[in-house]
Specification:
Strand order of the largest sheet: 3-4-5
Largest sheet: 3 strands, antiparallel
Structural class: mainly alpha
Order of helices and strands: EEHHHHHHHHHHHHHHHEEE
């Protein structure tokens, strides 16, 4: 495969027979326009030239997208382009972040390695500066963290995002929905990272997810039945064994509102308990582990009529 190039523009990987789509054409025009304006000017002169360019029709969009492409394709100019974008932005990066999020969602797999690297750099910079809607960008990036894929590129994305979430934990804590998405994603990935050469990554993932779940258990419950399914898949890992014990025996250590009644609702919703004994009026449900592997048991009674129960 060859990288589409015009000057320093190398954003997507394409073959010689592929035509550029509208998005590529738009980004290419913006980059060329931006380059024609900034050129080799000094910082002061470039800033003045960019401000004049903003007065043209669609000037703000062209300059903003040109700066975005520069940050993604020119590591040596990325800091300067980020600073220029900060100086000329009218909406707090809103237009750029919205379009970048959509670009990641639609075309991440076609990004060159440099663009993927720079995208993570840009993500860190925007989090540092509390740019709005970056949580949506994180969510779209996580969608490309493929389960079952232990190729170097996928593992790099998985670990790089994990490092971002660990480094900017206080930022992550502000977004309950993103917290739930992160927990779901990494619970799914932990199960796949069982190979010996992935031991360090897996332990880092386990420590992070356990920390998140213990501090934000209530937020994690919005995941629904998949939360219990995923927790069951990793139940033999020691840290998740202890989490299960607290969920079943000491629920209030996880959340003040996680009471016995609420636990009953969760169990019902997730359909994770095995039905061992059925009477005409209620069910005795067992969730058990054997031979020291799981060391937990729960017996709960549901006051539900038998003819209304469906599995």
């Amino acid at each position: 495969m060859e990288a589409m190039s015009t000057g320093c523009f190398r954003l997507f990987l394409t073959t010689s027979v592929e035509n550029k789509d509208d998005t590529e054409e738009k980004l290419l025009r913006s980059y060329q326009f931006f380059q024609s304006v900034r050129g080799d000017l000094s910082d002061k002169d470039a800033h003045e030239a960019l401000n004049k360019a903003l007065l043209k029709e669609k000037g703000y969009e062209e300059v903003s997208f040109g700066l975005l492409v520069s940050m993604l394709t020119e590591p040596h100019n990325a800091a300067r382009s980020y600073r220029d974008l900060t100086l000329i932005t009218r909406d707090g990066f809103g237009h750029v972040v919205t379009n970048l999020s959509q670009l990641v969602l639609d075309k991440y797999l076609r990004f060159t390695d440099i663009v993927r690297q720079q995208l993570l750099w840009l993500l860190r910079e925007m989090i540092k500066n509390n740019v709005n809607s970056v949580d949506n960008l994180c969510w779209n990036l996580m969608r490309h963290a493929a389960g079952g894929d232990i190729s170097p590129k996928n593992l790099n994305l998985v670990e790089s995002l994990l490092d971002v979430f660990i480094e900017f934990r206080s930022w992550l804590d502000k977004f309950p929905i993103l917290i739930a998405s992160v927990v779901y994603t990494y619970l799914r990935l932990i199960e796949d990272h069982h190979a010996p050469f992935l031991a360090a990554l897996r332990q880092k993932e386990v420590n992070f997810v356990i920390s998140i779940m213990r501090e934000h258990f209530q937020e994690c419950l919005v995941i629904g039945r998949d939360l219990v399914r995923l927790l069951q898949n990793v139940a033999r890992i020691a840290e998740f064994d202890l989490l299960w014990k607290d969920m079943l025996l000491n629920p209030k250590t996880l959340s003040p509102t996680f009471s016995g009644k609420f636990r009953l609702q969760i169990c019902t919703l997730f359909h994770i308990l095995f039905i061992n004994t059925v009477t005409s009026r209620y069910y005795t449900l067992h969730y058990y582990w054997l031979n020291g592997y799981f060391l937990k048991a729960i017996f709960v009674t549901l006051y539900i009529c038998f003819n209304t129960f469906s599995n």
